[in-house]
Amino acid sequence: MNSEIDADWAWAPFNPAPDRPWDRRLAAHLFRRAGFGATWEQLTEAVSSSPSEVVDRLLNVAEPPDYRKQTAALTDAAVAVGNVQQLSAWWCHRMLTTPAQLLEKTTLFWHGHFATSAAKVPEIRLMLAQNELLRRFAFGDFGQLLLEVSRDPAMLMFLDSATNRKAHPNENYAREIMELFCLGEGNYTENDIRELARSFTGWEIRRDKFRFNSFQHDSGTKTILGQTGEFGGEDGVRIVLQQQSAPEFLIGRLIRFFVFDEPVPSKALVAPLAAELRDSGMQIRPVLKRILSSNLFYSEHAVGRKVRSPVELAIGFLRCLEGSTNSFELSEQMNVLGQGLFFPPSVKGWDGGRTWINSSTLLGRSNLIRHLLEHDKTRFGRKSLAEYLNGAQLTSAESIINRLQTLLFAVPVPMAAREQIADLIDGPGDRNRSLAEGLHALCTLPEFQLC
Amino acid sequence: MFSQFRILTPVLLFLLITSSGFSHAASAADELRADQLLPDSTVLYAELPHPDQLMSVILDHPLRARLEQHEVWQKLTKSQPWRNFLTGRKFFEVQMGQEWREAITALTEGGIYAGFDPSTDGTALIVRGRDATIMETFRSKLLELLRLGKPDTDSDQKEYRGVPVYRVEAGRVAVVGPWLVLVNKPEIGKEILDRLLDDDNQLRTIAGSAEKTLAASASFMAARGARPEQVSVWGFADLEAIRQDEKVRKLLEGRAENPAAELIAGGIQSILLNTPYVTGELELPTSGIKLSIRMPSKSEWIPEHRSWFFGPDFSGAAPRLPVVPDTLLTLGTWRDVSQMWLRAGDLFDENMNDQLANADSTLTTLFAGRDFAEDILGSFQPQIGFVMTRQNFDGVLPQPAIRLPAFALVLELREPERMTRELRRTFQSMVGFFNVLGAMERRAQLEMDMKKLPGAELIISSYVAEDGEKDSTSAPIIFNFSPSAGFADSRFVLSSTRQLAEQLIVAPLAEDAGVRGANSFARLQADTLKQVLADNREQLVAQNMLEEGSIQEEAEDRIELLLEVISYFRGIGMQLKQDSGSLALQLEVNVMENQ
């Protein structure tokens, strides 16, 4: 389909028009993609600015010192306890509470891109260090990020590449950097992998730290992707990044994560952004800004064209309603649905898109929302659901459904469903119970699975 | 309004049993005790002889003023449930025509009693008020209330020998003179009413009489004879009758699956299999709560294979332990663990014996071929001490992020000279073993050292910090540990930290703190517990934020509240002691008496 999309139009800045106004619905779309979701107040504030200004704010918002201090204390506690469930809960809590939503969302993107699972890295300090690395470079220089990841203890341990001797070059990392991290299949040969692996010889992890063992480095001449020389690992990373396909591959991934799941973006659609990425020295921030401010991003090609991942589903549901809950259970529930934080299924990360949905996970998603609504630790704006909605002056079923539709839905709730849900909300008995039933019913609609 | 009445009904019901009745029955009823009303087949009995005193201890406790000043209490008193409670209380006062405490005192002045009779599956709650008048007032008010909420209450009223009996939910209530009787089965209710209405008091107190009551049963008489005068609550369980139940008997005769359970309660299990009854006493002085569970005990009831538990003729006494600063927990016991291990075949099931055999083999290897049960465990006296203290990290680096208490075993060597050398060598082997394991798991390594003190020697091991970790104040949890062993003549200390080993090996023994002769004792110090938790305040706040979904301020308030609640307590104590043919397990919770 996107072969028909005009790339010039697609990446031109979005200018609201009468047939596509910059309203809360579009602002909610931006927050769902460039974060996890927004409250009514955030949407109200957003529509008083231009889309571009809101994107700027999302890209540049800094976590206040108090928040950073609080997060540091939580990080220390997670490390002190020393189990990865604590770390998953910590990240859940951070996603739920951070004012820098886009930074966290992009960190999640890199976690799926440079997928590393704690299942093979039992030392949580290493997983945390990698997470902080991904966050530090989330909007920055991809080349530097790639180099750091190439020397990251958690990554190398995960890929069984903690030792790499010249006598037996370990090809695991060399293969993944070309196939999964930078170039994609078809843009390298098996010989390139072997030669790149030689350049990484001597890169080792000892006592949880990276070390270059010059005695185990193959200092001979290598030919990698058409370039010949006595390359070391840094040279290898540089050569991979210099390939034409590197920015194209990365832009394809970004489009798929931020704009639409399907179809695969065409070369023509990718080309302008790939050129911009290359020209900027592989800086992520400018292309991210362009994507999130573009005509394509706010068009019918993008709105409601992604399936919510379990993280987007659960964190988004809570963030939109100022929700809080037990982070341990929340992270465990997301794990059950296939997106355990720090537990990507393989080095390929999460497949995403339609693979999030099957008969089992659909039921699981419904159960997750019910679990959240029934959990005694779940509160909305520190209140019960009824108190929260009453506080927002939402008393009639219609006003409640309208509000929830704007906050939570990328596509309209069908009329028939609205009537049934209104009946649930106005049902007899405990008001909290009725509201929870109505909200649960809303969140089990197929429309809610889209974002 | 009716819903409020319904909420009040159980409260008022509880007090109802003190009203109606016939004047001709009152004189006989006045002289009776509750145990004379219950059948001799009663297996469980409890009495609260002076509810007014209990109420006074709780409501007039010095801590109350401190509690009432607390922010949480202030919030509670502004809540809707609290306002509902006050409304209910006011309603009760209006109905009774007096202040609620006076009314409750009058309604329960003669005590509250409960019994369970398995022959009829009947449970009875008996309340004795000050006099028939107050009970009659209460009964009539309660009936009015019931009729307000449910107009056909009369249909739930029947008579037994002229006494009105009211059906309320699944129970039946009647009032005779100053007595209120609430039962779940009519059979037990009839028995109680018969005794209240009959003027034949003498028969009930004579054992073996035609009319058998609980008061006349031999076990109960023996138990009651040993009942202290001043107790807040007293209970009795007829174990001889309870053991008739096959499940109970099997449980008591069964072999343990768990060595820890056997170590803690094996000997008590043997006594429970033979003792005729168990009594419980709850005392509530202003200094706290003291619960004592007593049972007759004889040394012949302890089988040979459990002689390791109490020692010959219950002579095994827990040791006095060295006194060190910042003690959190002390635990002392007499258990011949070596014997227990050797007698495992008689004590545990097949599965556990297989596991113990495997463990024995591994441990024998670990201890350089020396038999674990005979040579290692057998080298210690049966007196076992365990001490836990708060760690002081002042001036120490690296400091762990989570600060755990230090803990140590304090033991006595049978042959100090020989065993000191053996254990020193074994400790060195253990450190080496841990280093090999640690290296495999990429953990920090232990470094060994020795220290001589006057009359004592220490073998110390401590974790070596990596370069970037040496000055850390949020180091990994292993930096809580510096495993060390101390030797001073026959005293042997195996400690999680060097500091505690050094303190314990030279510290003087505790004076008799009321536990001399006890088989086992334990004591938890609340002030140190508070300090240990305060040391980890940040971690607790973080954990609370993640678990409760709280914001930081809420989490901090919760942890502050926890620390505040702990500060209301002095500590918790326990001891197990055999004395004058009776085994007693005493649990004590001490609170702060001063504001």
Rounded to the nearest angstrom, the radius of gyration of chain A is: 23 Å
Main sheet makeup of chain B: 20 strands, antiparallel
Structural class of chain A: mainly alpha
Q: Quick check: average pLDDT of chain A?
A: 95
SS-derived structural category of chain B: alpha+beta
Q: Which strand-content bin applies to the residues of chain B?
A: 15-25%
Question: How helix-rich are the residues of chain B, as a percent range?
Answer: 40-55%
Number of helices of chain A: 23
Number of domains of chain B: 2
Note poorly predicted spans of chain A. none
What's the arrangement of secondary structure elements?
The complex is a heterodimer of chains A (451) and B (595).
Chain A: H1 7-11, H2 24-33, H3 40-47, H4 51-60, H5 65-81, H6 84-97, H7 101-113, H8 124-136, H9 142-150, H10 153-158, H11 172-182, H12 190-199, E1 203-206, E2 209-212, E3 222-224, E4 227-229, H13 233-241, H14 245-258, H15 267-279, H16 284-292, H17 310-320, E5 323-324, H18 327-336, H19 359-374, E6 379-380, H20 385-391, H21 397-408, H22 415-425, H23 431-443
Antiparallel strand pairs in A: 1-2, 3-4, 5-6
Chain B: H1 2-16, H2 23-31, E1 44-48, H3 51-59, H4 62-69, H5 71-76, H6 80-96, H7 100-107, E2 111-117, E3 122-128, H8 132-149, E4 157-160, E5 163-168, E6 171-176, E7 179-183, H9 186-197, H10 201-205, H11 218-225, E8 233-238, H12 239-242, H13 246-253, H14 259-272, E9 277-283, E10 288-296, H15 307-310, E11 327-334, H16 337-342, H17 344-347, H18 350-366, H19 372-376, E12 380-389, E13 406-413, H20 416-440, E14 446-453, E15 456-463, E16 484-488, E17 491-495, H21 498-506, E18 520-525, H22 526-535, H23 537-548, H24 552-566, E19 569-579, E20 582-591
Antiparallel strand pairs in B: 1-2, 1-8, 2-3, 3-7, 4-5, 5-6, 6-7, 8-9, 9-10, 10-20, 11-12, 11-18, 12-13, 13-17, 14-15, 15-16, 16-17, 18-19, 19-20
Helix pairs in contact in B: 1-8, 23-24
